[in-house]
Amino acid sequence: MDLPRIWRLKSQRYKLEGSQCKSCQKLSFPPVQVCSDCRSQEIEPFRFAGKGSVYSFSTVYNPLTQFTEFVPYVVALIDLAEGPRITAQLTDVKPEDVSIGMKVEMVIRKISEQSDKGAIVYGYKFRPPIK
Amino acid sequence: MKRLLQPTRETGIVGYGAYIPRCRITAKEISTIWRGGRDIDNLPVDEISLPGPDEDVVTMSIEAAQNALLRAGISPDEIRAVYTGSESHPYAVKTTGTLIAEVLDIAPHTSAADLQFGCKAGSEALLAGVGLVGSGMADYAMALGVDSAQARPADELEYTAAAGAAALILGPATEAVAVLEGAYSYVTDTPDFFRRAYRKYPEHGNRFTGDPGYFKHIQASISTLMEEMQLRPEDISALVLHQPNERFPRKAAKTLGFSQTQLETGLLARKLGNTYSSSALLGLTAVLDSAKPGDRILMAGYGAGAGSDAFCFVVTDRILTMRDKAPDTHTYIYRTLPVDYLTYARLKGKINTGGE
Amino acid sequence: MRKVAIVGIGQVPVREHWDSGLREMAVRAILDAMQDADVRNCDALYVGNMLAGYLSDQSNLGALLADYAGLQVSEAVSLEAACGSGAAAFRQAVLAVASGMVESAIAVGVEKLTEHSDVSPTNGLATAADADFEAAMGLSFVAINALLMRRYMHEYKCRKENFAGFVINAHDNARHNPHAMFRQAIHLEQYQHAKLIADPINLLDSSPIADGAAAVVIVPAEQAKQFAQPAVIVNACEVGVDTLSLSKRKDPLKLGAVTQSTQRAMQTAGINHTDIDLLEAHDAFSVMTTLALEAAGFAEYGQGTQLANPATIGINGKLPLSTFGGLKARGHPVGATGMYQIVEAVTQLRHQAPDAIQVSDAKRAMVQNIGGSASYVVTTILERDKA
């Protein structure tokens, strides 16, 4: 059970908290300690709004073991409206209905659980907007 | 003896939100699997809502609460309590409320507690929230009724055990879309339905859940509240009752002297089944979605064990500007993905994969 | 820095080696390489491995293998760069000898993927990606490549069948490689109907995971003539590095680390694309072959699959590719793969390949080993000793 990691990553998983460079305004997700553009170490947290579009996607049939119960599931690279690209699962959508460029919004879902006695990992996934 | 529950500070609902997962299985499909379709013309509901593979009480709560926050327009950190009523919390020990509070930026300056009382855990949370705000201890509190109900394969309960979430933010009446006029709670010890610790599925007393359970308690709470507040059925715009199926609330409404029209807007059971702790609360959100200022709404939850909480709200002008700020209840009711029994069994963990 | 040469090679067949552990396979490859070079000892041992700690509960491979191979070494250490671990160890051995720190070194790549009671190799391979933000979201390593393939097909309006030529070529060559895992030809229809692993990647787009070990002996080039086998000179061995996550790259279809390492290698060796007689590419997935060929400059961006025909990549083609079957058909024992590629290229340059897959008059080979989704890339230029 990876309890410290679940706890440590909650701002990213629950709130899509990345970072912004104070010097050149570059946005990053996940957060960085050094700006990848200007090398500044003046970095502050930045909360992404959770809207974006699909850059690429794949339906997974051979999962990592802790994702077996979700197969088949769709993973995607998503271009966030603010700029950075993020890796996440898509949910509430059939694989055949996903397309590149499709608009998506963030929701909080169950990501994985090691077993029925382990901690449950919750975090961001993306779905077609509800309205 | 004053039996009516009334806050010292005028209190109301300042934000409300619904969430219903999109999977649906028809009662007909269940009947075909377990009863050879012999009761197909006499099914308690048409279909039930089910959580997707990555949904549970936590995730459903979060979306309902987000919708409530969108409508309330308040800063989440002003909320001082997250009360989550459910009989299907994902953890037996570890609070659902802390997760909701953390995700929604309500934490850390808040209390959080999970409540359970059969299907009325949601209305119990509402009452607790009213208490906190109505006493002046806090300006805002969030109450949730959420469930992903369990039913043993082939049990009659499978026809109705559904999933949903409703969130209400309680606050000062001056900011409310619906102001609480009064509440009343009624409990007796009645073993009509229960689930023992460590058991996966509940037990129930079949027809015993009717008269001594649902009808006795819900009729007592509604009639006492009306009596105390000197209300007659014609004073009420909409009646919302806990809805374990479609027949029970219809019969109770009739006995209490209400017309079926008064019940209609808040009666969702035919399309959703029994969403347990969210059942009455989702009825309320559906009524608020189309209510007019001045409407008086009576709502009563029922929980096995047994008890009923009844509430009387009056809708304010603020409903007109507030309700479109988040998806309404019917957006979720109409967003459906039909599934067959095998998929349902998989989603509900009814397939034994050989684990402990 | 002085030039170095490869004077001994050893390998075990790529298989599911149920009866051999990590150490038996690695020691076999090391002993074979030393026998091939006819040496009794080497000064240093560099081990390329990705998952021994994860799947075999075994770290600290340098000391373990030096001991079991009976070596008296001044250094023995293991290097990890996901699927690029083999080349990482090779490069370290090259640098150690080239710098003069040691007079001889062994590089061995070894991987034991069939050793897992509680954990799955799929989970192990996913550790090549970002654990917190890719694998933790459910991305297998195949899925990451599938994201690339989908985007490639979308952006370049490329059909899935266009990739088939790489796969067919690899299997065709592997038929003649006794060390290969899959020694049967495949046809377009089989490719089209292979089952999906991570859409659009199917079973035949992917290299099979397996056990294996391969090793080389490296000495200073000026001493190479003392050895029995025809020496192969390491003319360049250069690295490129990119972000671990695909999501952090501006254009994920342009593999920057491949471009960097290829350009550096060609510059160091003083050659250009037309000087290369054969290419051992990192064909872990057919989309990776394509992207790497483009980024290395063998094709324009978006045109990589046009190379996937026998006239171009066949044994008698302009750029023979994956001549012993590549990762696709020889098999992909992860941390050993980079060493198999070197061993195979050396075999070609010694003109010791089986006739059917010997590239005629092969003088110069390029070997490219890729770690992760091209986050760590090593390009090596090998040349048959002119003497």
Topology summary:
The complex is a heterotrimer of chains A (131), B (356) and C (387).
Chain A: H1 3-8, H2 10-15, E1 17-21, E2 27-28, E3 43-47, E4 51-60, E5 73-80, E6 85-90, E7 103-113, E8 120-127
Antiparallel strand pairs in A: 1-2, 1-3, 4-5, 4-7, 5-6, 7-8
Chain B: E1 11-19, E2 23-26, H1 27-35, E3 47-50, H2 57-72, E4 79-85, H3 96-103, E5 111-115, H4 121-134, E6 140-148, E7 163-172, E8 178-190, E9 193-194, E10 203-204, H5 210-229, E11 238-241, H6 247-255, H7 260-264, H8 269-272, H9 279-290, E12 296-303, E13 305-315, H10 318-322, H11 329-334, E14 337-338, H12 341-347
Parallel strand pairs in B: 2-14, 4-5, 4-6, 11-12
Antiparallel strand pairs in B: 1-7, 1-8, 2-3, 6-7, 8-13, 9-10, 12-13
Helix pairs in contact in B: 2-3, 5-6
Chain C: E1 4-11, H1 22-37, E2 44-48, H2 52-55, H3 61-68, E3 75-79, H4 85-98, E4 105-111, H5 121-125, H6 141-155, H7 164-174, H8 188-193, E5 196-198, E6 201-202, E7 212-220, E8 232-241, H9 256-269, E9 278-280, H10 286-295, H11 310-313, H12 326-329, H13 334-349, E10 364-371, E11 376-384
Helix pairs in contact in C: 1-3, 4-13
Q: In the CATH scheme, what's the topology name of the largest domain in chain B?
A: Peroxisomal Thiolase, Chain A, domain 1
Shape of chain C: globular
Strand count, sense and barrel status of the largest sheet of chain C are: 9 strands, mixed
The name CATH uses for the topology of the largest domain in chain C is Peroxisomal Thiolase, Chain A, domain 1
Task: Tell how many strands the DSSP assignment of chain B holds.
Answer: 14
What integer value in Å does the Rg of chain C equal? 19 Å
Main β sheet profile of chain B: 9 strands, mixed
**What's the mean pLDDT score of chain C?**
96
Spans where pLDDT lies below 50 across 5 or more residues of chain C? none
For the largest sheet of chain B, list the strands in their spatial order: 5-4-6-7-1-8-13-12-11
The oligomeric state of the chains shown is: heterotrimer
CATH architecture of the largest domain in chain B, please?
3-Layer(aba) Sandwich
Which residue ranges of chain B are poorly predicted, with pLDDT under 50 across at least 5 consecutive positions? none
Q: Mean pLDDT score of chain B, rounded?
A: 96
- Tell me the span between the first and last alpha carbons of chain B: 53 Å
Number of domains of chain B: 2
Task: Determine the structural class of chain C based on helices, strands and strand pairing.
Answer: alpha/beta
